[in-house]
């Protein structure tokens, strides 16, 4: 009796790409998370005004919106993998040069360059997963979402000790190493692709003239901005990001205002970031197992609501509970990353949806930290800010209900031309 055929290894031939995806994800929040813990030291050295320091809270989401929207265009022009290399090189260059600048304008300008690479990486990773891991969307999305959570949580823990021992410039510039290391797997992938295309051209040159050509590259048959699914995903993404960035910007001050010290507020902020790890593992895996994952969105939205109400009405009564709930609230984000691939048929569709949803979403969220600060200053408290945040969670739930419906992007966008 013949032996059964060996079971194929699901990851064989794709380990290098998986490593590249995880390293890119590990870089996607470093330029943001490495600055805030040492901002006071940076401000004294490069003369950042209060307004310019406040602008640093808005620059990330604006950069993510702008350069994330451009990423699909760049990928169509030079290819997905070369675009990832470009994104990481931009990120590394921005991080290194801003750590050497002597002026506030230079610091802000090179921060934009660093964030441009990260904004491109945000958008390029979902279609990369779609291209290389269409059979492992849940696990791979979970893995790189965890890597992004580590990218958010680690710099705040190391930035201050590094700055104290080596100076703030080394503390900021040293993170560029992560971006440079992330380019290595993709340079290998690009080189292999060039060699493979060269071999293919030589084979076709020697082949008979009637040899059938390879299938042409898929191009989308519609416009993503005409899709209700795309708009719902963008709004859901935007409201989730708005709440996340408001908390990243203002949570320490909220805790100071209820009587806790600044150091305590910083520790709770680190916990807020670390709690993204379990959500990053669970949410994408649930998304691939249920037809309509709206219940997952509802659970994370409920965490936001309960955390806000607790921090607003009885902040010291059960502070650890409120912080855990708020830390779990952004768990909709990794779910949405998985849905970008689960609601598209091709990597081209995933690239279009990723660029649109993240570009528009980050644009919607950009006003969040500023509006929260304005409401706080105008009212002298946080009640109006909490009311605003609760309203945005309501919008998130409504848009999330549309996003989670089992509908494919390519079935909802209108054709480019009508016959």
Write the layout of secondary structure elements.
Layout: H1 15-26, H2 30-33, H3 39-46, H4 50-78, H5 80-98, H6 104-132, H7 137-166, H8 168-173, H9 176-206, H10 228-257, H11 262-274, H12 276-287, H13 294-313, H14 319-328, H15 332-342, H16 347-365, H17 367-379, H18 383-403
Helix pairs in contact: 1-6, 1-7, 1-9, 4-5, 4-6, 4-16, 5-6, 5-9, 6-15, 6-16, 7-11, 7-12, 7-15, 10-11, 10-15, 10-16, 10-17, 10-18, 11-14, 12-15, 13-14, 13-18, 17-18
Describe the model.
It is a single chain. With 419 residues, the chain is an all-alpha fold. The chain folds into two domains: 13-209, MFS general substrate transporter like domains (Growth Hormone, Chain: A, Up-down Bundle), CATH 1.20.1250; 222-419, Up-down Bundle (Growth Hormone, Chain: A), CATH 1.20.1250.20. 76% of the residues lie in helices and 0% in strands. The chain has 18 helices and no strands. The longest helix has 31 residues, at 176-206. The termini are far apart. Mean pLDDT is 85; it is low at 4-8 and 209-221.
Task: Briefly summarize what is shown.
With 419 residues, the protein is an all-alpha fold. The chain has helices at 15-26, 30-33, 39-46, 50-78, 80-98, 104-132, 137-166, 168-173, 176-206, 228-257, 262-274, 276-287, 294-313, 319-328, 332-342, 347-365, 367-379, 383-403. The protein has 18 helices and no strands.
């Amino acid at each position: 009796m013949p032996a059964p055929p060996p079971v194929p290894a699901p990851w064989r031939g794709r380990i290098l790409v998986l490593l590249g995806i995880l390293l890119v994800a590990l870089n996607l929040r470093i330029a943001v998370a490495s600055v805030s813990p040492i901002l006071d030291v940076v401000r004294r050295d490069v003369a950042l005004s209060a307004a310019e320091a406040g602008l640093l809270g808005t620059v990330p989401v604006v950069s993510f919106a702008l350069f994330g929207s451009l990423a699909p265009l760049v990928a169509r022009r030079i290819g997905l993998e070369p675009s990832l290399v470009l994104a990481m090189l931009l990120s590394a260059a921005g991080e290194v040069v801003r750590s050497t600048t002597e002026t506030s304008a230079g610091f802000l300008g090179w921060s934009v360059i660093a964030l441009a690479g990260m904004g491109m990486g945000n958008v390029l990773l979902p279609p990369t997963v779609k291209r290389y891991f269409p059979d492992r969307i849940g696990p791979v999305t979970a893995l790189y979402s965890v890597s992004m959570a580590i990218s958010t949580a680690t710099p705040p823990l190391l930035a201050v000790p590094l700055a104290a021992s080596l100076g703030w410039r080394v503390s900021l510039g040293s993170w560029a190493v992560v971006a440079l290391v992330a380019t290595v797997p993709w340079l290998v992938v690009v080189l292999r692709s060039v060699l493979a295309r060269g071999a293919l051209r030589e084979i076709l040159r020697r082949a008979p003239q009637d040899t059938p050509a390879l299938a042409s590259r898929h191009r989308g048959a519609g416009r993503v901005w005409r899709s209700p699914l795309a708009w719902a995903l963008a709004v859901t993404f935007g409201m989730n990001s708005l709440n996340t960035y408001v908390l990243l910007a203002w949570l320490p001050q909220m805790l100071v205002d209820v009587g806790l010290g600044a150091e305590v507020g910083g520790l709770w902020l680190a916990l807020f970031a670390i709690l993204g790890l379990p959500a990053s593992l669970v949410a994408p895996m649930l998304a691939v197992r249920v037809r309509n994952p709206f219940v997952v969105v509802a659970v994370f939205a409920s965490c936001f609501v309960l955390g806000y109400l607790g921090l607003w009405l009885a902040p010291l009564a059960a502070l650890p509970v409120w912080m855990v709930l708020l830390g779990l609230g952004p768990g909709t984000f990794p779910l949405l990353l998985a849905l970008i691939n689960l609601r598209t048929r091709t990597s081209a569709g995933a690239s279009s949806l990723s660029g649109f949803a993240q570009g528009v979403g980050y644009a919607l969220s950009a006003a969040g930290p500023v509006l929260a600060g304005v409401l706080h200053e105008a009212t002298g408290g946080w009640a109006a800010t909490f009311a605003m945040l609760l309203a945005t969670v309501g919008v998130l739930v409504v848009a999330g209900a549309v996003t989670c419906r089992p509908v494919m992007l390519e079935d909802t966008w209108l054709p480019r031309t009508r016959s």
